[in-house]
Amino acid sequence: MSASALRYLVSGIVRGEFQYKEFISQAWFVVGVAVVPTLLVAVPFGVIISIQIGSLAQQVGATSFIGAANGLGVIRQGAPIVVALLLAGAVGSAICADLGARTIREEIDALEVLGISPIQRLVVPRILATMLVGMLLCGVVAFAGVLTGFLFNVLAQGGTPGSYIASFAAFAQPADLVLAEVKSAIFGVLVALVACYKGLNAKGGPKGVADAVNATVVLSVVLLFAVNVVVTQIYSALVPQRLG
Prior knowledge:
Blueprint: H1 2-15, H2 20-60, H3 66-104, H4 107-113, H5 118-155, H6 161-171, H7 174-200, H8 205-238
């Protein structure tokens, strides 16, 4: 299915057959499903990281590096992981339920009888929409997490704004944000592929759709964390880190 989706994507763009209306509709649907939960998770996530890092930094006498540790932790790992969990739990389950319901109502079979490929018509727009929105959500989570950590450190932990910003600027680099966006794009593609595959292969009526949704969430989370480890190791090996 992945190979077919890639083939239909390339041929659709070249021939002008790409389903732009479906893509826009699905992107708006993904935004509606994921934006509010993302904002609700990003703020407490930033606070939790700030509390843990601030406490540890005070114990070892490294309070001047709180900004760097907090900011890099949110951007490199926190934001992509939050996006991965929300994409798997909210977006992936919604896509799988939608396609699964269409499958058991035999709408997918009707498309194939009419000579319309479900992958071209339904899967490809959802993959691109999930990838694009995942990248946008990563930027939102990174900004909200860093800002929340900064405000909490300054207002609640007695930190100084200058020290926080200086340490963050000394160690952070544009490649860190690029890493987060690349991770989120990969996560979006994987979640959409798993959700579409499970939805299109749902069997057994409503119970089968429920089982497919459950399998989508579990498989997506496991797969995303495994991919996160691999991508992080590749980044650490190829991109030199700033030493401040």
